[in-house]
Design brief:
Oligomer: single chain
Shape: elongated
Strand content: under 5%
Number of strands: 0
Radius of gyration: 17 Å
Order of helices and strands: HHHHH
Length: 131
């Protein structure tokens, strides 16, 4: 039997979710990078007097890993591996959302919360169309 072709609307929705993964991952990675206090970038010294704590280091590392994982979810979604993209996208989106809520109320964390919502929506779309 010939393989059925997927409907146009389903293809369009899955392409939209891949775009949401890409946009959310890039914006999340940029906002995580912008959370680094500028005084610690130059002269490359991590001291407690510079305003960086161990909690912030953990938040930055976990956030960067999650943002990179969202970009990997984009590659899964573009290859139509919806099960992996959906589950990983939902987990990554929730972790970034928690990091955003722990980060405070400045513009950088609000942008991180917005990107995590994009990743969550894309993960939910892919999870609902899993095969």
């Amino acid at each position: 039997m010939p393989k059925e072709e997927e409907p146009v609307w389903k293809r369009a929705v899955l392409d939209l979710s891949a775009i949401l993964f890409l946009i959310g991952g890039i914006i999340g990675l940029v906002s995580i990078i912008m959370m680094i206090p500028i005084s610690t970038v130059y002269p490359f010294m991590l001291t407690t007097a510079a305003g960086i704590s161990y909690v912030l280091i953990i938040v930055l590392v976990v956030g960067a890993i999650c943002a990179i994982e969202a970009l990997e979810c984009y590659s899964f979604a573009s290859k139509r591996i919806t099960m992996k993209a959906g589950t990983r996208g939902i987990v990554v989106g929730v972790i970034l959302l928690v990091i955003g809520f722990l980060g405070g109320s400045d513009l950088k964390t609000q942008i991180l919360i917005g990107s995590s919502i994009l990743i969550l929506v894309a993960g939910a779309i892919n999870y609902s169309y899993r095969e």
